[in-house]
UniProtKB/TrEMBL annotation:
GO terms for molecular function: ATP binding; dynein intermediate chain binding; dynein light intermediate chain binding. It comes from the Eukaryota. It comes from Vitrella brassicaformis (strain CCMP3155). The lineage of its organism: Eukaryota, Sar, Alveolata, Colpodellida, Vitrellaceae. GO terms for biological process: microtubule-based movement. Residues 337-593 form the Dynein heavy chain hydrolytic ATP-binding dynein motor region domain. This is Dynein heavy chain hydrolytic ATP-binding dynein motor region domain-containing protein. InterPro entries: AAA_6, DHC, Dynein_2_N, Dynein_AAA1S, Dynein_heavy_linker, Dynein_linker_3, P-loop_NTPase.
Amino acid sequence: MQFSPFKKPFEEEIEEWAAKLLTVSETLDEWLKCQRSWLYLQPIFDSPDIMKQLPAEGKRFKSVDNMWRSTMKRTHDNPGALEMCAREGLLEDFQDANKNLELVQKGLDDYLETKRSLFARLYFLSNDDLLEILSQTKDPTRVQPFLKKVFESMAKLQFHEDYSADSMYSGEGEKVPFVETIYTKDKNVETWMTEIEIQMKKAVRDVLYKSILDYPTKPRAEWVLVHPGQCVLNGSQVHWTSDVEEAIQNGTVKQYWDGLNRQLLDMVALVRTGLNKMNSISVGALIVIDVHAKDVVENLVKEKIDNISAFEWIAQLRYYWQNDDCWCQCVQTNFPYGYEYLGNSMRLVITPHADMCYMTLLGAQQLNLGGAPAGPAGTDKTETTKDLAKALAKQCVVFNCSEMMDYIMVGKFFKGLASSGAWCCLDEFNRIKVLSVIAQQLLILFGAKGELAGFNDSKEVDFEGSVIRMYPTFNVFITMNRGNTRRAELPDNLKALFRPMAMMVPDYALIGEIMLYSFGFDQARDLARKMVATFQLSSEQLSAQDHYDYHGMRAMRSVINAAGLLKRADQDMDEEKLLLRALRDVNVPKFLQQLSSQDHYDYGMRAVKSVLTAAGNLKRKFPNEDESILMLRAINDVNLAKFLSHDLPLFQGITSDLFQGVVLPQPDYKALLDALNKNLERICSPSPSCTR
C-alpha cells in the first residue's frame, strides 16, 4: 500500500500502520530470540548447584527470568499481538534481556571451559552432559550414568553411605578394587573424577602385577578365572614373551610350540564348561591372543630362529615387566603400558596383516607422526586402531567426521586429547571441509610434542586462545576411504603429519576360524570355510544390488556371532547344522521383502563379523547343539531379512549345497510374537496378518 499511486487520502494512516507493524516484527524477533535462550538456560539455572557455582550469571539470569514470566503472564491475560507488541518499552526490555542472556551464555561457556581444563576428559562430553554432571555435586552417585562417557569401560563405582568409592565395575559386572579409597563428599566433580582416573590406573597396575606373580603358581585354567580379563590377557602376554625368549636361547622353540597347542586346546575346552558370560568373554579373548601367539612361535620354528634379536621376533608386539612397570616393545619402539581400564572385551583377530599395521602405527608414533590407515570399507581401519589402543591400554576416542564439522569443534576435541594424553581415531577424516585449518592446529600440537624428551614430561602450549598442558602420549589417527569421490583431498602440510598405510581385505576364513574357536567350536576351520564360501557364492549368483555386501567382515561376523550364541545354548548340537542355522537366520530375512533403499545387502567385513557374533551367541545359548545347525542359523539370522524375495531361493540353494543334510529346526518365535501382539493391542486391533 505504501507504493500505491492512490495512497494520498490514506497516507497518514498507512504510515501509522507501517510503524506499528515494524514494531511488532522487531519485537517478535527479539521475543523469539529471548525465548530460545531462556528455554535453554532455564533448566540449567534451576539447579541450586549451578546457581551456587555461578552467582553472577545466576543473578543476571534471575532478572531476565522475572521479566520473562511477568511478560508471559500479561500476554496470557491479553493475547492480542498488536496490543502487546506495541506496549511501550517492551522491545527495549527484550533487547536488554537478550544482551544479558548473551553475557550469561558467555559466562557459562567460560565456566565449562574452566572445568574441562581441570579434568581433560570432560572435553569429550557435550555441554548438556557436562552441565548434568556438574549439577549433581550433592549426590555423586547420580553421576554414575555418565561414567562410561568419561571412562570407556567403567560402568559404575561402588559407593558407600559416606559417598566414598573403593571399587569400579565393568559393564559385564567385573569388579576391580581401588588401591586407595576415594572420598567424594564436599568435593567438586572434576576433582574426584581426577582422583578416579589416578586410582583406576593404580588399580589396573596393581591387579596386573598380582596376576603376573600368580601365573606360575596356579593351573592356567584356574588362573584365567580369578583375575580381571584385562590382566589375564596382558599377564599371559608378559609370560609368553619371557617364555619365547627363553625357548629361543635354549633352542627349545619346537617343544614350546607343542606346549602352546596343548594350552590352546585346554582353553577351548574351558569355554565349553558352562562359564558365565563374563568369564566366557575373558576366555574367548584369551583364545584369540593364544592363537596368534601359537602362530608367531610356529613361524619362529619354520624360520629356525635362534637369536632373540632376529627380526621375525622383534617385529612382534612384546610385553615386559621392568622396573615395576609394564612396557610394550615392537622393533625399535618402546612404549609404557597405559593402564586404562578395559573391562571384559573381545580382541580383534590378529592376522599377519594386523601385525604389519601395528608395527607401522607404532613406528609412526615413535617418529612423532600420526597414522593414516586408508582402504575400502570393511578392511578394519578403525577396529585395528582401536585394538592397538587396547593392546597398549590407552584411552581411544573414536570421532565420526562429517561435512558439518568446523575447526572450532575439532580444536576443542584436540584440547582434550593433548591434555589427557589420549588417542583418537578420526573416522572418514577426509569428509571434513576445513582441513587446512585443522592442519595448522595439528602442526602446533605435534611440534610441541616433539620437544618433549620423555613419556612422563608435559609442556604448556598456547592452543586456540588458551594455555593447555600437553602430554606426549597423545596421538591422532585418521581413517580414509579413497573410493569415495566426494571426499576432500588432504593438503600437503597435513599429509606430512601422518604416516599412510594401505589396508588390505583380510583373510576372512582365518578370522572366522579363530573367532569360532574362541566361542568353543570344534569344527571351526571347516565351518569358517563354508561360511566364507556362502558369501562368495552369494556375491556371484545373487542379483547385483548396492546393499548386497558379501565381500567383507560385516556379514561373516554376524553369522559367527549367531553361531556362537547357538553353540553356547547347546554344546552337543551338530556343528554343521549349527552353522547352517546361523547362516539362515542371518541371511534369509534379507530376501523376504522388497525394500526401496538398496543398501542393506551386506557381504563385507561387517557382515562377516555380524555372523561370527551371532554364531557365538547361539553357541552360548545352545552349547550342546550341532555346530553346523548353529552356524547355518547364524548365517540366516543375520542375512535373510536383508534380501529381496527373488534372491531367497538362490541363497537357500547355496546354503543347502554347502550344508548338505543339515535341517534346521523350526525357530520358536512365541515370546517375540506374544510381545508384539501385546504391544499392538495397546494401540490398535491387530489382525493375524500383522505378525504372520
